[in-house]
């Protein structure tokens, strides 16, 4: 081996050691960076002819566990979906309120029944009659508030779907663009690790919305699919389509075309198919809020409103009214009918005949809503009959309630119980999903940058660099000696 080859070998060693230090320092600097893939310098022996001639850098390898990464992303999607469900169920229960909360549905009903009882005990009292009318108006108002709150939740979900679709489309387009740059870097012998990191960060933006399956080809380009097999990035980026609405009403549904579904590259996705398209993530949960959980909640409060109105609209209860006339509670001024139940809770109103603010008189609560003149002030017959109607056991005809006979207060209690049970179930499922996601996240972090190991590797690099530098010094000394001899 000549002195020149010795010097060449040592210089190649210095180059490799310097590049190794650069890679290790990058790993340490990004130890806390989310989604960073640990880099390793690929080193190979350099051969000239049949003899070794130092070391050379083969490339920079980016390491990641695709299986673990995929499992964690699926857990992210599940957790986001269940978090969306739990959040909606919690807000719904809060909207309904518990009996101990002033202004809750249960409290409003209890107040109405209590004031109606007081009026029946003292039918001559203008104050008691006025209190009962005010309590009836407050009960109708609370039912309106719950209905409005449910529609607000549906509208917020619709708006959130639109934002999610924009986020997903933007990320998919950037992932496809990065695939082109990654292939170009690989073909040109450049480093693609940073591009892959950027691409993974974009995938993380999509993962909570849609359960994903990902794979990379030999050129490190990423192919992305939904769990049900829809191609999201396969050569080109898919384009999701969705049209949000500005207002929401109880009768608006995806089925009748008043609400938008979801398309991919112009093709309608079957969100209620078998299996449902893009199911399992936050995007599907938002559609469930708008099209399933929200409509179910509306149907239940509509059933409560209908039951309330029909009890006091029963034939023969108010002898001053013709058959089929509106009772104490109306559908925006007209009689309540089963055919118009959808959205009834939002339209429930106090009959103007008993409302002084609308030209009515509170004594009609005692004498009958169709009474032209005030009757005997001591007659509590109609007041008592209304109380009996509220406490009568009767089956609930709609809203998904069981067919068991119940009083109005029993129906309101069951309504709250269903909301509470749904919230508890959703929170339990979310807690379990959170534990799974946390465990997978910890396992993923454990496979990331180990700063202790990197520091040990840096010490080894320092030793290698020093050794190669010593070889260079020795070779230079030998050359200097030859020059001295030659002189």
Q: How does this model look, in words?
A:
There is one protein chain. By secondary structure, this protein is of the alpha+beta class. The protein has helices at residues 3-29, 66-96, 105-121, 126-187, 193-206, 282-312, 344-347, 364-367, 381-391, 408-446, 451-486, and strands spanning 38-48, 51-63, 212-216, 222-226, 231-234, 236-237, 240-241, 263-264, 267-268, 329-331, 348-350, 394-395, 405-406. The strands form five sheets. The protein has a four-stranded antiparallel β-sheet with strand order 3-4-5-6. A three-stranded antiparallel β-sheet has the order 7-8-9. A two-stranded antiparallel ribbon has the order 1-2. A hairpin with a 1-residue loop joins strand 5 (231-234) and strand 6 (236-237). Helix 1 packs antiparallel against helix 11, helix 2 packs parallel to helix 6 (282-312) and helix 3 packs antiparallel against helix 10. It is rod-shaped and about 140 Å long. The two termini are 24 Å apart. The model has no long low-confidence stretch (mean pLDDT 90).
């Amino acid at each position: 081996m000549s002195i020149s080859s010795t010097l060449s070998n040592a210089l190649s060693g210095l180059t490799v050691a310097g590049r190794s230090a650069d890679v290790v320092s990058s790993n340490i600097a990004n130890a806390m960076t989310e989604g960073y893939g640990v880099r390793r310098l690929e080193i190979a022996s350099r051969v000239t002819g049949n003899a070794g001639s130092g070391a050379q850098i083969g490339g920079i390898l980016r390491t990641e566990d695709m299986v673990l990464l995929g499992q964690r992303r699926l857990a992210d999607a599940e957790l986001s979906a269940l978090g969306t469900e739990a959040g909606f169920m919690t807000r719904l229960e809060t909207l309904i309120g518990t009996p101990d909360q002033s202004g809750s549905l249960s409290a409003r009903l209890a107040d109405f029944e209590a004031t109606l009882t007081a009026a029946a005990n003292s039918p001559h009292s203008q104050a008691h009659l006025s209190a009962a009318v005010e309590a009836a108006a407050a009960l109708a108002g609370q039912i309106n508030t719950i209905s409005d709150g449910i529609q607000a939740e549906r509208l917020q979900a619709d708006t959130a779907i639109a934002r999610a679709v924009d986020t997903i489309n933007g990320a998919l387009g950037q992932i496809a663009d990065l695939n082109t740059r990654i292939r170009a870097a690989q073909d040109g012998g450049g480093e693609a690790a940073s591009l892959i990191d950027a691409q993974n960060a974009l995938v993380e933006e999509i993962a909570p919305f849609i359960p994903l399956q990902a794979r990379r080809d030999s050129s490190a380009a990423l192919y992305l699919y939904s769990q049900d097999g829809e191609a999201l990035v396969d050569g080109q980026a898919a384009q999701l389509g969705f049209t949000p609405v500005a207002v929401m009403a109880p009768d608006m549904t995806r089925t009748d075309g008043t609400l938008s579904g979801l398309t991919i590259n112009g093709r309608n996705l079957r969100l209620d198919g078998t299996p449902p398209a893009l199911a399992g993530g936050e995007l599907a949960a938002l559609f469930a809020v708008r099209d399933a959980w929200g409509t179910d909640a509306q149907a239940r409060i509509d059933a409560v409103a209908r039951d309330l109105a029909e009890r006091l609209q029963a034939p023969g209860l108010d002898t001053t009214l013709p058959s089929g006339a509106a009772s104490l509670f109306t559908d925006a001024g007209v009689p309540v009918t089963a055919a118009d139940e959808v959205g009834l809770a939002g339209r429930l109103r106090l009959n103007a005949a008993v409302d002084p603010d609308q030209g009515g008189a509170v004594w009609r609560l005692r004498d009958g809503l169709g009474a032209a003149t005030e009757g005997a002030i001591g007659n509590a017959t109609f007041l008592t009959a209304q109380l009996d109607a509220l406490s009568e056991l009767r089956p609930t005809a709609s809203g998904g309630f069981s067919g068991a006979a119940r009083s109005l207060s029993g129906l309101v209690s069951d309504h709250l119980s269903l909301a509470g049970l749904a919230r508890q179930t959703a929170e339990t499922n979310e807690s379990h999903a959170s534990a799974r996601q946390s465990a997978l996240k910890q396992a993923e972090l454990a496979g990331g940058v180990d700063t202790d190991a990197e520091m040990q590797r840096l010490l080894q690099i320092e030793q290698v660099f020093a050794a190669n530098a010593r070889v260079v010094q020795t070779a230079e000394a030998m050359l200097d000696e030859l020059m001295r001899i030659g002189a």
